[in-house]
Structures are given as C-alpha cells and as structure tokens.
Amino acid sequence: MSRTGKKPVAVPENVQVQFEGNHITVKGPKGQLSRELHREMIIEQEEGLIYVKRPSDNPEHRALHGLTRTLIDNMVKGVTEGYSRNLELVGVGYRAAMEGNKLVLNMGFAHPVVFTPGKDMEIEVPSPTRIIVKGIDKQQVGNLAAVIRRTYPPEPYKGKGIRYENEQVRQKAGKAGK
Predict the structure, then answer these.
(1) CATH classification of 3-80 is 3.90.930.12, yes or no?
(2) Which pLDDT tens digits describe the chain residue by residue (178 residues)?
(3) Beta pairing partners, 90
(4) Which is nearest to 38 in space by CA: 66, 18, 57, 17?
(5) 83-164 CATH, one of 1.10.287.3510, 3.90.930.12, 3.30.365.10, 2.40.360.10
(6) For residue 10, what are the β-bridge partners?
C-alpha cells in the first residue's frame, strides 16, 4: 500500500472541495483550482478529510494512488497558503526589474529578456539580483521559475547565471596553464 496514498488530505474550514466524476474543484481564500483526475481512482470525502483509494493492486493503480493524493493535497495547500520559488542572479551587471507586471532581465545579451506572468501568478523583485515567483498552482510556479532560469543557467566555470536559491553549482577547474 502506498504510504503517501494512505494518508488522508485534511481540508481546512475555509476551503470548499467539489467532485463531479473525476473532475475536482478546490476553492479557497487565495483562489480556485480545478483538475481532471484519473477516472479509475476512488475519492471519498468525510468530515473535512479526503481519502484516495485504488480499485486494484495492479502497478498502474499503485503508481496513481500516491500521485492522485499528492495532486489533491497540493491544490488544497495552494488555495490556502500558495507557493513560491526564489531565484538569484549571479554575475557582474546582471539585474532584474519589474516594468508594470512584466519582469525584465538584463543578462548581458544584446536585448533585455521580458517575461509576463500568467493568470494567478505573481513575480516580485525585492532586489536587482533576486526574483520571487508566487502563485497558487505548484506546477505553474515551478514551470515559470524553470523557464526564467533557462534564460541563462549557471555555468560551471565561474558560476554566473540564474540559479534557484541555495542551489549548489558545481565548479570546474579552468584550463591548465603551462
């Protein structure tokens, strides 16, 4: 039995969860999320708890058991607390700024790189070398942070580029001189 799948999902009082077949909608103080879940998973709601059960012990159902429970838990946490991902810019002259609701990165290219956050997403720039991506959907927050990082990933010789906060970049030795 999946250890993750066995745990019930606690639903706070200020969150409403609705099931229509295999479609789930979660409403909370920060917004609303909806998602299609696998049609064979059995989902039951009792007194502020959601239980996910699998129809059989076959490998596909075992894999979907924990995944379905985690997706529901991430939706509940997203509409109550939200998610954020922090990025750092490392390098001389590299900076980020907000122009309206757009993120503008100056990374040494011939042109600035501009990002526009999607619906229910927010980007903050507390300092020119820090970026915070916030939102209620964990997948969208991680995806936008990855797209921003992909603009200039950290290089292994000097470590310059965009990296996640507390990310360890493995440094390589430079060219051996005579």
Answers:
(1) yes
(2) 567 888 899 999 999 999 888 899 999 999 999 999 999 898 988 888 999 998 888 889 988 998 999 999 999 999 999 999 999 999 898 999 999 999 999 998 999 999 999 888 999 999 999 999 999 999 999 999 999 999 999 999 988 999 999 988 898 888 876 6
(3) 161
(4) 66
(5) 3.90.930.12
(6) 49
